[in-house]
Design brief:
This protein has 928 residues and is of the alpha+beta class. The strands form 8 sheets. Strands 1, 3, 12, 15, 19, 24, 27, 28 and 29 form a 9-stranded mixed beta sheet that branches. Strands 2, 20, 21, 25, 26, 30 and 33 form a 7-stranded mixed beta sheet that branches. Strands 4, 5, 10, 11 and 18 form a 5-stranded mixed beta sheet that branches. It is 40% helix and 21% strand. The radius of gyration is 42 Å and the shape is elongated.
Length: 928
């Protein structure tokens, strides 16, 4: 017979080679699918809205970039911006800067109690609003108040929260009597006059100045409440044209800002007088509702502009240098500020006779910085809003009556110090505390000029983590001019998820408290502070253009005020495809003397930040907040993730196939011992030892050829160098096993009898001693099987260690988790297939003596051994083999774990131990 026929006849060689080839095909297929899923995941999630972040200078954060790129420090000139835009590789270059902080007094809070007097032509017939309800359809009069005045106690309070603890800012009480109003008709010169008057004996309720008193109108009794705490927002500046190009359709909210007047047409006094003239000359009702047209923009929020202009003019705040600043303001707020009023009915002695109820209102999604209408208009229990009977009056609301205060103090971005690095590459940070900022103060004077008692409320100190910004020389009070609104949540969504890059202040980057000051695990989203100078901030309250920045900061000439420029390269495709052109563009920008950070291929990553000196007690002792998490940006995340997980993929493939090849070798060496009788016969026929080995090696050559063909085909299909290397390694291991096996064919004389009285013979008196004797008699096969089981256990340990180590190897970024999830299932399939192949090959090795085992088990059965004793023989044989294999398996698994996945090495050793323990009962079932 030729070599091919002998190879097929041997069955064992055919079986082991077939198992190895099938394992190669399946493993390469699974590994290829895993690598394709990894590449697809990385490519789809590694290119954000821009490719290069340009800054004048920036601290090296070790590849982890904080989201506050609008720092307020500037450093980039408009000439440099134009140079960047002129580069051939630039598609979009969008600048952004932090302007300042803006503090404003909210519109005076009030408590409205329904006290509707019914339709009266003298009071309601003058509205002229076509949307007003027809007089015949007005409901009958109703009121939540009694005809006879009752005495009430109102307790107003404001509470703010940083997300983990509430703080009462003030609690003020006022008393007085309130009752249902009545209409009084008086005869006056020229006719009759109708007015609203409170009931006899009503005193009204008056909180301390600067709060007003109480008054009746057609629909309500309104009680003026204590002023709410001041609220502070941040403002950023952008170029609206390039910002829209950067955001795409998500940036359409900036379109009104593109129509803002040029710098020389923004004088606050001139614009204020223009709007005053509109009312002098007459304005239609439709224009009032939609907003008067101003250079092509319908100014919906004209009323706050007018009232703030008039108030600033009366107070002498506006100067000839004051400029109007066009703004797109944020809808809603993340600030947690609640205003409550507790209403109690009392007797003349001050005792509570009835708890009317407590009403509460919070700043919420309806709040608009600079223009918000009545953010704290509370309703008496049981009240209803009937003002719509007069028509849609929302456009006519004055809104905020006081101009905001603009300041650059404590406005810069926070600074951080690096801490320890975690196993997955994440780096701990520590926030740098700044000065204390006092909030919750009342104004020195009321709107009517009356002095304000400052002892009404206790000022609150908040820790600032920010520094002051530089300003120009011509500071003048600006006038806010609201052009439109934007939704911060929509902007965040447009910025992406895994590949989200910071836009610079107007996209929210919240903080989550993960450990409190005592180290206890928590999960609390933190809220911004009243002063907006703390570590936690929300989306900027408003967006303006660079002329607005100049007006707010007091610059009269071009200054280097651009904090950052976000540059998108003029190249399509994934981050990997665009990488050469992006690097080229970044180098051209660096030649201008600027810092250009390539962010294509980056991903968001949660940074852990320790927050010291967060609060202090009455004695001035400071206490830390704990540890917070914020989403930062991991540079080169795509490269790191792709590289590490590709290496893990290939290592899994190598370990699976080379482990299978080693087990095949162990099986082959054990099997070839059975062919010594053939070698003896051939030797007697005159064959030389060399010819005998060549005769056997020819059979192995057939298996090697099949493996080589399989390896070449798989390498061509996958077109992967790694597949070729692994296939070659498998072939080398198989050839080495064949050579070692051939060396075992050296013929020796066999004496076919045993000494009858050898003291070394083990007495057979139990299944354990019989199993021991059998294994001692067949030492070579025992050792071969033990080595095979040890190799199997070591391979299992290595596979388990690699699978456990995937999350750590992937890194800490959001892309890491997504990529690790994409290869998790293929990696598990690859690992399980490797374990299955290894277990199968150890079973093949164990079956070489199957016929002999069945013969002696049959003899023992004839001698009267029962099935339990025979089962014990099988079990003890395998247990002893497992005992010999155990050190090799555990130590091998530990070594492979330390080499490939040090952080999971202990798990590798445990997996090796479990693999041997599991092999024992499985192998016991082979012989029945």
């Amino acid at each position: 017979m030729n070599a091919v026929q002998r190879f097929i006849r041997s069955r064992v060689l055919l079986l082991t080679a077939s198992i190895l080839i099938v394992a190669m095909c399946l493993s390469v297929l699974v590994q290829g699918q895993s690598q394709a899923a990894l590449s697809r995941t990385v490519d789809q999630n590694s290119r954000g809205l821009y490719d290069v972040l340009v800054q004048a200078k920036a601290k090296d954060d070790g590849g982890l970039m904080q989201p506050d790129i609008a720092t307020g420090q500037g450093g980039i000139s408009f000439e440099q911006l134009e140079s960047i835009r002129k580069l051939s590789g630039t598609s979009v270059a969008a600048p952004i800067s932090l302007v300042s902080r803006v503090t404003q007094n909210l519109e005076s809070p009030r408590l409205d109690a329904t006290d509707y007097l019914g339709f009266n032509a003298g009071l309601a017939g003058t509205s002229g609003d076509p949307t007003a309800t027809d007089p015949s359809k007005w409901p009958a009069a109703e009121s939540v108040l009694s005809d006879t005045p009752k005495k009430y106690r109102l307790t107003a309070s404001a509470v703010s929260s940083d997300g983990q603890a509430d703080q009462t800012l003030f609690k003020t009480t006022a008393e007085g009597s309130l009752g249902k109003a009545k209409l009084v008709e008086e005869q006056v010169e020229g006719g009759k006059n109708v007015r609203i008057q409170g009931p006899d004996g009503e005193t009204g309720i008056k909180f301390p100045t600067p709060a007003g008193g109480s008054e009746h109108n057609l629909f309500n009794l309104s009680v003026s409440l204590p002023m709410a705490p001041q609220v502070t927002e941040s403002v950023v500046a952008v170029d609206p044209v390039s910002e829209r190009a950067l955001l795409g359709t998500a940036g359409d909210f900036l379109s009104p800002l593109e129509k803002a007047p040029p710098a020389d047409a923004r004088n606050a006094g001139a614009i204020g007088r223009h709007f005053e003239s509109l009312f002098t000359n007459g304005i239609s009702m439709d224009e009032l509702k939609e907003g008067p047209d101003f250079l092509g923009v319908k100014l919906k929020y004209w009323a706050p502009l007018m009232t703030q202009y008039q108030q600033a003019k009366r107070d002498g705040q506006l100067t000839d240098d004051s400029q109007a600043i066009p703004l797109i303001v944020r809808s809603g707020t993340a600030l947690d500020l609640k205003y409550s009023v507790k209403i109690e009915e009392i007797d003349d002695s001050g005792n509570v006779t009835k708890d009317v109820g407590t009403v509460t209102r919070s700043l919420d999604k309806d709040y608009l910085p600079f223009v918000s209408k009545s953010p704290f208009a509370l309703a008496w229990p049981g009240s209803k809003d009937l003002s719509q009977l007069m028509g849609d009056t929302g456009s006519f609301s004055q809104g905020l009556y006081n101009p905001a205060t603009w300041t650059t103090n404590f406005a810069a971005a926070p600074t951080y110090k690096d801490g320890e690095a975690a196993a997955n590459g994440a780096v701990d940070k520590s926030a740098t505390p700044g000065d204390w900022v006092t909030v919750n103060r009342l104004p020195d004077k009321a709107a009517n000029g009356e002095a304000v008692d400052q002892t009404q409320r206790e000022p609150v100190d908040e820790r600032s983590y920010r520094q002051n910004l530089e300003t120009g020389k011509k500071l003048a009070t600006p006038l806010a001019m609201v052009y439109g609104t934007f939704d911060a949540a929509n902007v965040k969504e447009a910025a992406g998820d895994v590949n989200r890059l910071p836009l610079g202040g107007y996209d929210p980057a919240p903080f989550t408290l993960t450990k409190d000051a005592s180290g206890k695990d928590v999960n609390t989203e933190l809220k911004p502070s009243l002063s907006a100078t703390g570590l936690v901030s929300q989306s900027a309250g408003a967006i303006t253009d660079y002329y607005g920045l100049a007006a707010a900061r007091g610059y009269d000439t071009n200054a280097n005020v651009i904090d950052a420029v976000r540059v998108r390269a003029k190249v399509p495709g994934s981050w990997k495809q665009a990488q050469p052109e992006v690097e080229k563009l970044a180098n051209e920008i660096r030649d201008m003397g600027l810092q250009a950070t390539v962010v294509a291929g980056s991903a968001r990553e949660d940074a852990s930040i320790a927050v010291p000196g967060y609060s202090k007690d009455d004695a001035g002792k400071e206490s830390p907040l704990g540890t917070v998490q914020q989403s930062w940006v991991r540079q080169d995340a795509a490269d790191a993730v792709s590289g590490s997980l590709t290496a893990t993929n290939l290592t899994l493939l190598f370990l699976t196939l080379c482990g299978a090849a080693l087990l095949t070798g162990a099986s082959t060496v054990s099997y070839i011992r059975k062919r010594r009788s053939e070698a003896g016969t051939l030797r007697a026929m005159g064959w030389t030892q060399r010819k005998i080995r060549s005769w056997v090696l020819a059979e192995f050559g057939v298996g090697a050829a099949l493996l080589a063909v399989a390896g070449i085909v798989l390498s061509l299909i996958s077109w992967s160098t790694a597949t070729a290397v692994v296939s070659a390694s498998v072939l080398v291991l198989y050839a080495g096993a064949a050579f070692v096996a051939a060396q075992q064919l050296r013929h020796r004389d066999v004496v076919d009898q045993e000494p009858q009285h050898d003291e070394r013979l083990i007495a057979v008196d139990s299944p354990l001693t019989f199993a021991n004797r059998q294994l001692s008699t067949n030492k070579f096969n025992t050792i071969s099987l033990a080595v095979a089981v040890g190799v199997f256990a070591a391979a299992v340990g290595g596979l388990v260690a690699l699978l456990i180590d995937i999350p750590r190897a992937a890194g800490a970024s959001a892309l890491s988790g997504l990529a690790a999830a994409s290869i998790a299932l293929p990696s598990i399939i690859l690992g399980v297939s490797g374990v299955a192949v290894g277990l199968l090959l150890t079973m093949v090795t164990g079956r070489f003596e199957l016929q002999a085992k069945r013969q002696y088990l049959g003899t023992l059965r004839a001698m009267g051994w029962n099935p339990d004793m025979l089962g014990q023989v099988r079990f003890f044989e395998n247990a002893m083999v497992g005992t010999v294999a155990l050190p090799l398996g555990v130590v091998g698994a530990l070594g492979i774990g330390l080499l490939l996945a040090p952080y999971a090495a202990l798990w590798a050793a445990i997996a090796g131990l479990v693999a041997v323990l599991c092999w024992i009962p499985i192998a016991t079932k082979v012989v029945q």
